[in-house]
Amino acid sequence: MSVLETSDLNKRYKLGDHEVIALGEVDFVVDEGEFVAIMGPSGSGKSTLLHLIGGLDQPTDGNITLNGQQLSLMNDKQITLLRRRNIGFVFQFYNLIPTLSAEENITLPLIIDGANKREYSERVETILELIGLRDRRTHKPEQLSGGEQQRIALARALITMPAIVLADEPTGNLDSKTGKAIMQLLRRSCDELGQTMIIVTHDPTAASIADRVVFLRDGKIDGEISFDHGIKKTERLHRIIEKMEELE
């Protein structure tokens, strides 16, 4: 069953007298529980696609259907509610509230949505256990390492059990060891919680953990690679790097 589907998705910008095509006729489907990585050269439209999927920007034309709802038929208030309840975001620079504790940052989406936190207490404990930070729950962001802050950002994205989690360069601000740990957490959230995951990344190592890698070039999809679970990491990396070299 698909959670996300785009059809003939286009995004164009006016730059003076010229029109810039950021995305052109993108058809893209993601199934429930699937882990998809989006890759491509700089300027290929990766982040633009993620922002359109997440309702952070509107397409010039084309359709986006998320969890059975067509975004083009929704007003701003409805899209805001869709983002709040159906989409989890993980950004490169964490975007944590500095005056709140780790646990308060995690539960912030519940507070904004008016939910009763007591009903979510078990989920909070499960997610804190998943990210390995139960003993850091009262710490403020400044008391946490970069990797710990990114784990909190991931937990915040997961707390409402959204239809889909979108991660924009989630390891881009981390060293390789910490980045690897974050990718393993994303993989675990997919495997253990059944979470659908889409990440944008320039890192072949990060992408190699996905079920499928979709490649963009000049705003269009230019191939994809699907991986069976039995394929070794070295083979995954080789195929991804080979495709990226082809796109350059």
Characterization of this structure:
The structure is a single chain. The chain has helices at 46-53, 76-86, 102-112, 121-131, 146-158, 176-193, 204-207, 233-247; strands spanning 2-15, 18-31, 35-39, 61-66, 69-70, 87-90, 164-168, 197-200, 212-217, 220-226. By secondary structure, the protein is α/β, with parallel strands linked by helices. Strands 6-7-8-3-9-10 form a six-stranded mixed beta sheet, sandwiched between helices. The chain has a four-stranded antiparallel beta sheet with strand order 2-1-4-5, covered by helices on one side. The longest helix is centred in the C-terminal third of the chain and has 18 residues, at 176-193.
Condensed summary:
The protein is an alpha/beta fold and 248 residues long. 37% of the residues lie in helices and 27% in strands.
**Kindly state the mean pLDDT as a whole number?**
89
Envelope shape: globular
Query: What percentage of residues falls in helices of 4 or more residues?
Result: 25-40%
Could you say how many structural domains there are in total?
Answer: 1
Alpha-carbon distance between the termini?
Answer: 34 Å
Q: Which stretches of 5+ consecutive residues score pLDDT under 50? A: none
Class based on secondary structure composition and strand pairing:
alpha/beta
**Element-by-element helix/strand order:** EEEHEEHEHHHEHEHEEH
Number of helices: 8
> If classified by CATH, what would the architecture be?
3-Layer(aba) Sandwich
* CATH homologous superfamily identity: P-loop containing nucleotide triphosphate hydrolases
Q: Over the alpha carbons, how many angstroms does the gyration radius reach?
A: 18 Å
CATH class: Alpha Beta
Number of strands: 10
Strands across the major sheet, in which order?
A: 6-7-8-3-9-10
Provide the β-strand percentage band.
Answer: 25-35%
> Which fold does the CATH topology refer to?
Rossmann fold
Largest sheet: 6 strands, mixed
